[in-house]
Fold:
Amino acid sequence: MIEYDVIVVGAGVAGASLATVLGRDGRKVLCIERSLKEPERIVGELLQPGGYDALKELGLENAVDGIDAQNVYGYGIFMDGKSLEINYCEDPGEHKDSSTGRSFHNGRFVRRLRELAAEEENVTLIEGNVKYLNEDDGHVKGVIYSDASGDDTKAFAKLTVACDGCFSRLRRMVNPAAEYEVMSQFYGLILRDLSLPFPEHGHVVLLDPAPSLFYPISSSEVRCLVDVPAEVSRAPNFDVKEHMIEKLAPQLPEELTESFITAVKRGDMKSMPNRAMPAIPVGLSGAILLGDSFNMRHPLTGGGMTVALSDVNHFRKFLRTVDDLSDVELVSSLQAYLLAERQSLSSTINILANALYSLFCANDDPALKDMKIACFDYLSKPGRWSSDPISMLGGLTGRPYLLLAHFFGVAAYACGR
Structure:
């Protein structure tokens, strides 16, 4: 029987990154992934500058090499025929590497992260379906998984980390109190050979009933994510193609309309639910959650990978101080450490994402609609009016009090208009 130091369940962005760095630190790691085929996802494609900084701190920046990743220098925002450009770096002529995001096909990025994990001598990366936790008197000692033959196998470790994503199977076992809210549905399209109005920028188009996103994922492809609120998609006889062509296309900037309609008619769109879930402490010793299995926010602002990679960094730093992972009491304090260390950045990104989504969907309430217009005008101003919000959105600044100050600033600006 082989006992590992750590079992990582899931080899996505969080899981593969964690397995690699723990292996480099001398830990014996088993990483179990349901399918090692290159995934096809429509989110996890825009890595904010703060996320890229975290990737570099982990020593994994070469994961974006050789996948046709694109530099992202900021955002273009469109509303009612008006547009504005906000850059992560205030001087657009002096972009620094630390103020630049990356966008790419999620599957290519995950494939590279898995390749890096598989190269590590201390990491065993296998394909398997984790079915249960191997638990003894409230303490997790590993997992039970089935391999390609369907046979069940027990794997033992001093610490088990569930990184199995937003559809996490282990979340309910490890943390029964965790509850998520489905805020909306994303429908993903690929637009080909399109010149975006603001090259090398993400684009947020404020539409009725909800915003849509456009950003490059390769040198010849642009991802479009159409957000459909839950109450809209539940309407009788709702047809998403009809909704896109008849309701949304007329509201888009002229430069995007033709390519958007062509992509809709082509029909090869994918969808996924957009979930929000607060981070809640785990109730079992010997196990912990990371990534989307632990904490989710609306993906409008693209903060998920930034939070996940930052959490991996905190996790790694703590384990570097622990000589013996069989010290249950010491390892159990990892959770409290992680919750404390992640709070500033994760709460800033989470609150900003959910608040902006709610505000940008405000079309029926006159007061909130006026606030949305005020927010657009507020971000149009130079200096800290726009530089602070884009720094928080980009994961470069994690300061909840600064976020609160700008919330009040937008409200005061709206009242004084």
User: Anything to note?
Assistant: DSSP finds twelve helices and 17 strands in the chain. The chain has a mean pLDDT of 94.
